[in-house]
Write a structure and sequence with these properties.
The protein has 425 residues and is an alpha/beta fold. 49% of the residues lie in helices and 15% in strands. Strand 1, helix 2 and strand 2 form a beta-alpha-beta unit.
């Protein structure tokens, strides 16, 4: 008995050292996510605050190294029937999980919640509600969502005789500005200052496609990215690269680094790019702007949503929903947005003191937020998750002048169709 008592005491001490006790009475909610760096730090701070405010719930975060690793780990956990309570997912992942029957219906949890009603749901931006609804059922909720934005060097604009508080609003104006900002500053016959740079980015192409009036798929689910509008969108990019020579090709973060180094005057990235750029010294006045538009002002949102996996324990599922509801309420989503430059989930956040104060200091950022009003979302089908990297490969061929925009997009559309066919079997 004495040995048993000593062992019990030791176990209790060890559990206490780990921050848990056998008698805590808390409902533990495990959360797998793929955020790191300053974004992960902000998320951890908010999770700790939630845990302090909710004595009966403890969210335990498990950061995964990348979204690819997160996807692989989630699939393995589902096969082993040991999935977490909540996790970040993309729409194309969620569609597969729904087929497997492992996700809890958020509609059902909302119906059981007296503190969340239709007005709350209608406060969520339509693009987020729609992208998280599958077969008329809400299975996921927007979590860390972003839009594309432009960051520009106001000092370069001034030196080129351009208004530093005005960013081009149309494709045509953007081309003109890129040419004016491309210069041989040391007169050696070689341009050393450029309007902008592009990397091979599927998200950028999707936006240009929609702005040209096109779509990725039609109402029957057939790929249409190689339409006349698609070719026009990709040609807009390649013409600036090979005809105007005001744009050059970069890889990954090279474009951002060149912008910070003053090599280019304009840089297109995720709205979250500024969070990473703030970690580096910025030696010029920086401006913020929404994307230039063409036939439409549509652009696609990106980023992850959050889901609740079925656990067989309704108390845990309700606790998981409590965290999601808290994280995406007006004040928290406004705080998350200002700290990270992810987009607020709710329209009411735009009137919060947090965002109103932020916009007083950064009025140009308002246009970036306003893109949510005309935003669209990418296909929910799991085939799109596989087609995205394939599209990237075809885009690169065109952007390296190894194929025409038409040839590249015909190849991408054919591959996308094959992947859709595979998914339907």
């Amino acid at each position: 008995m004495r040995r048993l008592l000593i062992a019990t005491i030791l176990i209790s001490l060890l559990l206490g050292a780990c921050g848990k006790t056998l008698t805590s009475g808390k409902t533990e909610v495990t959360f797998w996510h793929g955020l790191s760096g300053p974004l992960g730090d902000t998320l951890n701070e908010m999770i700790m605050e939630f845990n302090r405010e909710h004595e009966d719930i403890e969210v335990v975060a498990n950061p995964i190294s990348s979204y690819t690793a997160l996807s692989q780990k989630l699939m393995a956990s589902i096969q082993a029937k040991k999935q977490p309570d909540i996790a970040q997912v993309f729409e194309s992942w969620a569609s597969k999980y729904i087929e497997s029957g492992v996700l809890a219906s958020l509609d059902e949890l909302i119906a059981e919640d007296d503190d969340f009603d239709e007005a709350d749901l209608n406060d969520v931006y339509p693009v987020f509600r729609n992208s998280n609804t599958f077969n008329d059922t809400l299975y996921s909720f927007p979590f860390n969502k972003s839009v594309r934005a432009y960051f520009y060097n106001k000092d370069d604009f001034y030196r080129a005789g351009l208004d530093p508080d005005y960013f081009p609003k149309t494709w045509g104006e953007f081309k003109e500005y890129a040419l004016k900002l491309t210069r041989d500053t040391d007169n050696d016959g070689v341009n050393d200052q450029f309007g902008t740079n592009f990397n091979v980015n599927e998200w950028q192409f999707v936006n240009l496609l929609h702005q040209a009036g096109g779509t990725l798929i039609d109402e029957e689910g057939r790929p249409t990215l190689n339409s006349a509008m698609g070719v026009e969108a990709l040609s807009y990019v390649t013409d600036m690269m090979f005809k105007d020579k005001s744009v050059y090709l970069v890889r990954e973060y090279e474009g951002q680094n060149d912008f910070l180094a003053g090599v280019v005057a304009m840089y297109e990235g995720s709205s979250v790019s500024i969070t990473h750029m703030r970690q580096q010294p910025i030696n010029f006045n920086i401006g913020y702007a929404p994307l230039p538009t063409y036939r439409t002002a549509q652009s696609a949102v990106s980023g992850a949503n959050i889901v609740i996996f079925k656990s067989g324990d309704r108390k845990r599922e309700r606790a998981a929903w409590e965290f999601i509801k808290w994280f995406t309420d007006t004040d928290q989503t406004a705080r998350w947005s200002v700290a990270t430059s992810y987009m607020p989930v709710r329209r009411s956040a735009m009137n919060s003191d947090i965002i109103v104060s932020f916009l007083k200091k950064n009025p140009q950022y308002k246009g970036i937020y306003e893109q949510l009003e005309t935003a669209v979302y990418e296909p929910q089908t799991a085939a799109w998750f596989k087609a995205r990297p394939e599209l990237k490969g075809y885009l690169e061929k065109a952007m390296r002048d190894q194929s025409s925009p038409r040839e590249a997009l015909d190849g991408a559309a054919k591959k996308f169709a094959e992947l859709i066919e595979e998914e339907s079997r």
